Amino acid sequence: MSKKRFRSYCLNKLKFYSRVSNIKKDKEICSTILHIINLHKPKKILVYIPLKIEVNMNYLIKYLRRFTNIDVYVPYMKDDSFVAAKYRLPLKRKKFGIKEPNISFSYKKNEFDMIIVPIVGIDNTYRRIGFGAGMYDRFFEKLNNKPITIFTQRKLCKCNNTITSSYDIESNYIII
Question: With respect to CATH, is domain 3-175 assigned 3.40.50.10420?
Answer without folding.
Answer: yes
